[in-house]
Model the fold of this input.
Amino acid sequence: MNVISLSAFDLCLAASLVLLLAGCSLRIGLGLEKRLLVSGVRMTVQLLLVGMVLKFLFASASLGLVMLMSFCMLLVAGYEVWARQKRKLRGSTGYLISTGSMLVSSFTVAFLALTVMVGVDPWYTPQYAIPLLGMLLGNTMNGVALASDRLTTDIYNQRGLVEQRLLLGESWQEASGDIRRDCMRTGMIPIINSMAAAGVVSLPGMMTGQILGGSSPFDAVKYQILIIFLIAAGTGFGVLTAIWLISSRLFDDRQRLILDCLSKLKGH
Amino acid sequence: MGLRLSAISFLSNGPYSMDVRSGECVGLTGRSGIGKTQLLRAVADVIVHGGECSLDGKPSSHFTPPNWRKTVAMVPAESFWWYDTVDSHFQDGESLAAGRILLERLGFSSDVMGWQVSRLSTGERQRLSLFRTLITEPRVLLLDEPTSALDPKMTQVVEEIVVEKCSNKKTICLWVSHDQGQLFRVAERVFRLEVKALVSIGQQ
Done:
């Protein structure tokens, strides 16, 4: 079975739906229209570019190029996580923490999958490595970004409460414990929910793609199971890493809550 | 012996130095926004500050931060509660049981522990917040406007309780208030906080 090729017109039709949505956003003063359009254009351009890059990469299949591509993806993912936080850690620390968490959540898990579970030879075969890493980065990014954003926002908003607990002689871990656990839950619940709903409510994208591409449904399902497990584990460990690193930066060596290291929120 | 503030400074305030004897209550007043609360927060070591406090000759850096704050305990003007019921904020059942009489003096019956925090009045929160700190028996009490939301009768009760703590348990107290009359009732020495200095305005 061959995939039916999509024409440019088909894609334009789909894009017009998003334009319509942007129109609605403008009409009701949602303020999302610019972001919607910019993101839509970015998505299109980035995917077209990556299509070309992948074509080139699959043809060459060298370790150096695969690693270069992987690190570019990682740096962008780290930036996305960082940029999505309303209150960011100032300076390079915030970006490094975001990127570090993405490294934990995606790189390590992808490497393990390639070498042990899929066992493709060589392990960096781009047809496997790049899509796998991409899926992981894309899906774990949401959880890590959600949890990080919530942590800095919550600690800032509840600074009086955190300080009250410090004043009662709690350690910084105890004083921020409830907030940190809430944020970890926030980061992990979406993937847990989507695991529970997989196959019943939603047909996951990768599986759908493989089936459209002509694989047997059962092979597609097995890959999908592997991927979802990896995403769940990656998200979980990424979230734990991010929350730990960020929260430890919010307190100094005398366990004082330091909020100067967060960027200020601008009014609009 | 006692609490020593050595050249405490923060932002553009200070340096402030002071010695407070065991069992002494010192009153602090000063115009709004001058930094009275910040001075207490610096002594409790929850804000970055210059200089150092020491207790009985032992500098705060020799304590772990939680131990210092348990020993030199601040009751902030606005109290915070993070669980639904009052009793969830009291983990130490033993000291809670020992505090029954204190709780009654502050105008509560023992069923207050099951109350919803969201239904407490400002004054009730203020008294419970003071109670929460008092039952941990700190060596030093840092009180920030502890009676701002209380009626005259309860204000008197709180003043009596703190004065008793100072004379019976040798507790040290720094009491911040706008009400100079109150400070002269409870404190042996009263100071006015200015940007660069603590000015003595009277003693008993």
In short: The two ends of chain B are 21 Å apart (CA to CA).
